[in-house]
Design goal:
alpha/beta, Rossmann fold, six-stranded mixed sheet
Length: about 375
């Protein structure tokens, strides 16, 4: 995991690559350690410009040394995950149009001088050589850097219990390939967001895991699923700061070759750039038989995805799961008589001692959309109460 925030001088410093790399390192440990796929075989090296150990500063020499160390200890069954956050530049200065990742010793964006490119920048070809020396067959490369779509294109152009975790282990054994996710197209910048306090791509990856929207139903963090979520989510975040950013995703030739890099559970805590408020899947049951005869839960969850519920700290984000301890949860029991519903609802808000109650009586059930909007109104009103 490499993050470069502090460059030589003050002209091109960035705000969050160090933080992004640290968050990704901690998250990979969290989702992988203790699982049956990886157990205690998780090794993470973090290089950032705020490191106190000189050997862990993101110089080209230190990054290259880290790759050599990994190559000496890795085997074919391992998973290699590379994360690079910082400045990226495309330049024809070396004789061909290439992507360069700038390390801490670079002081400006001009790469005309060969000694700057050779000593302080990592060209895609160099990175490709370093990766090729590592025997791991499952490889994941993430660039949270400007113009990094060029690197994605280059890297892949030559590529010819019984628990759910145990099932995933069997699936995992047969998967190979390189997945590359670049923050932006070759002609685009990659943006940071001051409110999120992270790069948009990093935030999207963390958010995809934290909200469970970017993982499989059993909690497996599938590389292709997560990357596809981030690819689709970044442009939405970018539009919120009036910018354009479109990630580039390249996958192995065989779609079935995706694999998982860990698991998230109800107790998994993942760092994100701001404190998000989540709302989980609802549960409404008919008192007679404890079935949801009206399919009210599904209708309400579809409405939640519009994201218009407001809590005390702002908008609540829908998490497509019920297994999330830190999410607001809406539950209710109802009865139907003569085509009208009586619904006793409860809103369970993390950190509060008692649920917020609401009641809907004698409301027609012939128009589910209208009923859902009535529930939304009651929930919004209760969430706005102090």
């Amino acid at each position: 995991m490499v993050g470069t925030s502090d460059y030589d001088g003050n002209d091109i410093d960035l705000g969050f690559p160090d933080k992004d790399a640290r968050a990704m390192a901690n998250t990979l440990r969290t989702i992988a350690e203790g699982t049956e796929m990886f157990k205690d075989r998780v090794h993470v090296t973090l290089l950032t410009t705020d490191a106190t150990d000189p050997a862990l500063l993101p110089s080209k020499a230190n990054i290259g040394a880290t790759f050599k160390k990994i190559a000496a200890s890795a085997n074919a069954e391992d998973v290699l995950i590379i994360f690079l956050a910082g400045h990226g530049v495309t330049s024809p200065a070396g004789g061909k149009d290439d992507f360069y990742y700038l390390t801490k010793d670079v002081g400006n964006m001009k790469l005309d001088a060969a000694d700057i490119r050779n000593n302080f920048c990592i060209a895609t070809d160099t990175l490709s050589d370093w990766i090729s020396d590592i025997p791991a067959k499952k490889r994941v490369v993430i660039f949270d850097a400007c113009h990094s779509g060029k690197a994605a294109e280059t890297l892949t152009s030559s590529r010819a219990p019984l628990s759910s975790q145990k099932r995933e282990l069997e699936r995992f054994k047969d998967r190979n390939g390189m997945f590359v996710l670049a923050a932006s197209e070759s002609n685009q910048k990659s943006w940071e967001d001051q409110q999120l306090q992270q790069g948009l791509l990093t935030y999207s990856l963390l958010f995809g895991m934290n909200s469970r929207n970017g993982v499989r139903a059993d909690g497996a963090v599938d590389v292709q699923r997560l990357f596809q979520f981030a690819r689709d989510y970044v442009p939405q975040l970018a539009s919120g700061i009036n910018e354009d950013q479109t990630p580039v995703l390249t996958v192995p030739d065989r779609e079935a070759s995706s694999f998982s890099i860990g698991f998230v559970t109800a107790n998994t805590k993942i760092e994100v750039g701001r404190k998000n408020q989540f709302i989980s899947q609802s549960m409404f049951l008919n008192k007679d038989g404890f079935n949801d005869d009206l399919h009210l839960s599904i209708a309400f969850d579809n409405r939640l995805e519009a994201g218009e519920l407001e809590g005390e700290l702002g908008k609540l984000i829908f998490a497509n799961t019920r297994q999330m301890n830190e999410a607001t949860a809406i539950r209710g029991l109802y009865s139907v008589k003569d085509g009208k519903i009586r619904l006793e609802g409860r809103i369970f808000v993390p950190g509060t001692a008692a649920p917020k109650a609401f009641l809907i009586e004698a409301f027609p059930t012939d128009d589910m959309g209208v009923l859902v909007e009535r529930i939304m109104g009651e929930v919004n009103k209760k969430l706005g109460e102090k």
